# Entry
Amino acid sequence: MADRSLRGMRLGTQSLQSEVGVEFSPRKKSTYRAADGTTFEVVFAADAEVPQQWESPKSGQEGILLDSDGQQVVLDETETKVPRSHWDMLLERRTRAELEELLQERLAYFRSRKGQEKIGA
# Structure
């Protein structure tokens, strides 16, 4: 048994699947120009938002999006919301004086639970 080998197929090098009946998703090509003047194309899904800058796969330089006429595309800069931190949201609901008062109440509560009431306060 050990002296026999599998014949007729290179294992792992060829796929047995075919592209018959496969419908590819719609795509579009976007052209970018790098700082050195070279252009390159990137394929995106038809419904994807195309970024204004893309890194060239060959040179690694940032490329700027071009329209069909070869001119640089200027996208509308929509005002993006600045992410708010938990502290910002807290300050929208309470003043600093209220927060300080709550802090002192909670500290007093925790100290009394441990039996370590603050001396001299």
Q: What stands out?
A: Strands lie at 27-34, 39-45, 53-55, 62-66. The first strand starts at residue 27 and ends at 34. Residues 96-114 form the longest helix (19 residues). The two ends are 89 Å apart (CA to CA).
